[in-house]
Design a protein that fits this description.
Helix content: 10-25%
Distance between the termini: 33 Å
CATH topology of the largest domain: Collagenase (Catalytic Domain)
Number of domains: 2
Oligomer: single chain
Radius of gyration: 21 Å
Low-confidence stretches: 255-259
Number of helices: 9
Mean pLDDT: 92
Order of helices and strands: EEEEEEEEEHEHEEEHHEHEHEEEEEHHH
Length: 416
């Protein structure tokens, strides 16, 4: 903690990623009465000219208030989303300002840090403050030009049968019509960023399927929990790969055993090119892949009644997160992504007349902007057709990507 690391960025660099991997680090801290993950994040990052690329103690680093009542970080040079215990990746550029300014050549430096270290000098922490944690540190620089090809590994965690009644395996993935349609949809959505995805399937052991394949928890995401430990399986196949884990279901919080969510990323962005960490991938529900009654797949992409299309869409959305994209607009209509060319859907403009008085509420009864409320009507309510909108909805979700979203994706170290 507190070490100043200096590294040289060569000319013609398109992006850089700072990776902190814990040797020995506490897992949580208590801040203002809440237990949170002990995220690994540089305390500060300094450019060659001495200007700050990032300051974790800057209260405004999360973005500024915009006229529509939301928080907009697109004008910051870089942005950190949080939630990175044990292993943290910080990739620049990931904002409109960062894309415009680029990554200057020369001697950069950053200060090794995590939330536990900050708790030793920031008020509000009453437990977990340590300045003795240690990390292995790596810096990856990715040269220009932006890439166009990405290797994608699908791990078959789910113990499910295809429509022919045979177990879903890597061997039959190449010939099963539903799986291949899912792959086709995934590839098509990635092509919206001018990226060609080369897809591979891998089996896992029976013990790994039994432990991780069914009803992993969407809320238990600490480094020792099932989802995070599942991601370490990616270390069996090292390389610059996007790792997607197909499970039977993802258990939602407080659902009484019935609710599910459809996808979760290890972190945003993910630790690209570092397989085997507790954040090295994303989990995708395969529940609809072979579901009877969800095979109306004629014509174009149909996420409403075609399960393979839906799974392919979810996989592409989670891949976007891993490569550095945030939701264009969060459910509350108050927080927006880091890019200026993505349409916003602010609560104060786009919520129903019944919900507008509750804009700004953080309660469970606060507004949730759906995709069909964010399709351009009224004016200023957009983004519902974007791949990275928070809500997947038939008739609205189209998987579109903007020029800046494509630029962030193609500058990620995974895109060659």
């Amino acid at each position: 903690m507190g070490d100043v690391v200096t590294f040289n960025v060569p000319a013609n660099t398109g992006s850089l990623t700072i990776m902190q991997q814990a040797d020995l680090a506490s897992l949580t801290v208590t801040y203002q009465g809440s237990v949170i993950d002990n995220s690994a994040v540089p305390l500060s990052i300094t450019k060659p000219d001495g200007g700050l690329a990032y300051d974790d103690l800057d209260a405004g680093a999360g973005g500024v208030s915009s006229p529509d009542g939301g928080i907009d970080p697109s004008g910051e040079y870089s942005f950190y989303a949080g939630g990175t215990p044990v292993a943290g990746a910080f990739t620049i550029p990931n904002t409109s300002a960062g894309l415009a300014q680029g990554v200057p050549a020369g001697a950069w430096k950053f200060v090794v840090n995590d939330y536990a270290n900050e708790c030793t000098f920031v008020s509000g922490c009453n437990d977990g403050g340590l300045n003795t944690n240690t990390y292995q540190v790596s810096v990856v620089t990715r040269p220009l030009p932006a890439g166009s090809t990405m290797e994608v590994n699908f791990y078959i965690m789910a113990d499910i049968n295809t429509l022919t009644g045979t177990q879903f395996t890597a061997a039959n993935a190449a010939t099963d019509p539903g799986v291949q349609l899912m792959v086709q949809t995934f590839k098509g959505l990635m092509s919206n960023a001018a990226v060609t995805a080369n897809v591979h399937f891998f089996d896992v052991t029976a013990a790994e399927r039994a432990r991780y394949g069914t009803n992993v928890s969407a809320t238990d995401t600490g480094p020792c929990d099932e989802i995070s430990q599942m991601f370490t399986i990616s270390g069996q196949h090292p390389g610059d790969t996007m790792n997607l884990f197909l499970v039977q279901a993802i258990q939602a919080a407080n659902s009484g055993g019935t609710g599910t969510v459809v996808g979760i990323d290890g972190t945003i962005p993910g630790p690209s090119s570092f397989n085997g960490t507790v954040h090295s991938g994303a989990v995708v529900s395969a529940a609809d892949l072979f579901a009877v009654g969800q095979q109306n797949c004629s014509g174009g992409v149909n996420i409403g009644s075609c399960g393979p299309d839906r799974v392919g869409y979810i996989a592409a959305h989670e891949t976007g997160h891993f490569l550095g994209l945030l939701h264009t607009t969060e459910a509350d209509g108050q927080n927006f992504d880091t890019l200026a060319d993505t349409a916003k859907c602010p609560c104060t403009t786009c919520a129903s007349a019944q919900d507008k008085p509750n804009c700004g509420s953080s309660s469970a009864n606060g507004p949730a902007l759906l995709a069909n409320q964010c399709l351009g009507t009224p004016t200023g309510c957009g983004g519902g057709n974007n791949l990275m909108f928070w809500f997947l909805q038939a008739g609205a979700s189209q998987g579109l990507l903007t020029a800046e979203q494509a630029q962030v994706i193609r500058l990620n170290p995974l895109v060659q």
